[in-house]
Amino acid sequence: MSELIAIFFSMALVNNMVLVKFLGLCPFFGVSKKTSSAFSMGIAVMLVMLVASAVTWPLFHLLLVPYGFEFMRTVIFILVIASLVQIIEMSIKRTNMTLYNALGIYLPLITTNCAVLGITFINIDQNYGFAASIAAALGAGVGFTLVLLIMSGIRERLDLADTPKVFKGAPIAFLIAGLLGLAFLAFGGMVG
Amino acid sequence: MKSLIKTLSNGILRANPTFILLLGLCPTLAVSTSIDNAFGMTGSVLFVLLAANVIISILRRWIPDRARIPTFIVIIATLVTIVDLALKAYVPSLSKSLGMYVPLIVVNCIILGRAEAFASKNNVIHSIADAVGMSVGFGVAILLISFVRQVLGSGKLEVFNVQLFSIPGLDSNPAAIFLLPMGAFFVIGVLLALFRWMGVSECE
């Protein structure tokens, strides 16, 4: 159990998807202008990460490894993620219209979000078991949402700030991401 | 011929994927810790983008419109698998330092973006020019970022184990923060602002 908790915090804070592994930068800069949409995007990514990890782990260890097809992992995983996103989108549309209206437009974008494909690769490369993969996916999702929320909060205030003309928009967002990364560096000593 | 040159230069300057369109940032920032990695990543992207653009451009009349995105993804994923296996077999050290960012080329927005916006609408010759232009644009950007990061972060420039120069003082006390992940954010942020200040790109 303590190992799972360590993996969770390591993925959420120490090896943060966005700030340390540079995964999912497109939504990080694209959807971080408003807190509400940043939160929706974060939850949608977390959901897809969890389901994708739960599906790709057995697929890799019970199907690809026994038959010696490990090299097909990239093709198989991206197809699984694309279909999963489609299925999740359709089932949310059928069951919960409020949730669909909140997450709807973000779901299709997640297919090409490298954070989702990245976490499935990390689970395999780190030789995680099934429970550890789920813990890692949950941690990665929470870390992604957390950073997206912090970033959107800062950017909402930044709109009112007097930024030099050449730094307005993307450049200042990158500098803030760098400062956030420095702050997250302090979590380094937490998990060995 | 004139339109070919225009397509070619478009990716390098006016629509540079990294500095103007801000696409495909994940590999650009993640592997730009050394010039060697930058060359490896540029070569991989060039191969995948070129082959994907050619194949999609040839097949564009037969790919059904509604199933085009899944088709593109399968084509790109196959090409990426080829690159991944080839790097593992011939340059294992490079493959190790690029790590999972090679298979992640599948979800690089530059490649899917060019397939959707260019190759599926234009002929093979123009698609080749577009792929070369975009890859060179990507390569220039990632080389520039890794040049700054490597020089400031280690105080010397080493390309394929050959030391080109070292800065006295800085090489014994390098600014190691530029080799850490956050260094990449600082470098690209300042470069973007610099290009605007020089008038290469426009302010918001």
Plain-language structure description:
The complex is a heterodimer of chains A (192) and B (204). Chain A has one domain (2-189). In chain A, 73% of the residues lie in helices and 0% in strands. Chain A has helices at residues 2-14, 25-30, 35-64, 73-95, 97-103, 107-110, 114-125, 130-158, 170-185. Chain B contains 8 helices and 2 strands. Chain B has helices at residues 2-12, 25-30, 35-59, 68-90, 92-98, 109-119, 124-154, 181-197; strands spanning 156-159, 162-166. Chain B has a two-stranded antiparallel sheet. In chain B, a hairpin with a 2-residue loop joins strand 1 and strand 2 (162-166). In chain B, helix 3 packs parallel to helix 6, helix 4 crosses helix 5 (92-98) and helix 4 packs across helix 6 (109-119).
Chain-wise SSE layout:
The complex is a heterodimer of chains A (192) and B (204).
Chain A: H1 2-14, H2 25-30, H3 35-64, H4 73-95, H5 97-103, H6 107-110, H7 114-125, H8 130-158, H9 170-185
Helix pairs in contact in A: 1-8, 3-4, 3-7, 3-8, 4-5, 7-8, 8-9
Chain B: H1 2-12, H2 25-30, H3 35-59, H4 68-90, H5 92-98, H6 109-119, H7 124-154, E1 156-159, E2 162-166, H8 181-197
Antiparallel strand pairs in B: 1-2
Q: Which runs of chain A of at least 5 residues are low in confidence (pLDDT < 50)?
A: none
The total beta strand count of chain B reads 2
Strand-pairing-aware structural class of chain B: mainly alpha
Q: Which stretches of chain B are poorly predicted, pLDDT < 50 over at least 5 residues?
A: none
What is the overall silhouette of chain A? globular
Q: Can you summarize the main beta sheet of chain B?
A: 2 strands, antiparallel
Radius of gyration of chain B: 18 Å
Q: Specify the biggest β-sheet of chain A.
A: none
> Roughly what fraction of the amino acids of chain B lie in strands?
under 5%
From the alpha-carbon coordinates, what is the Rg of chain A to the nearest angstrom?
17 Å
Please give the domain count of chain A: 1
Oligomer: heterodimer
Mean pLDDT of chain B: 86
Instruction: Give the class of chain A from helix and strand content and strand pairing.
Output: mainly alpha
Helix content of chain A: over 70%
Q: Determine the most extensive contact between two protein chains.
A: A-B, 45 and 41 residues
Distance between the termini of chain B: 34 Å
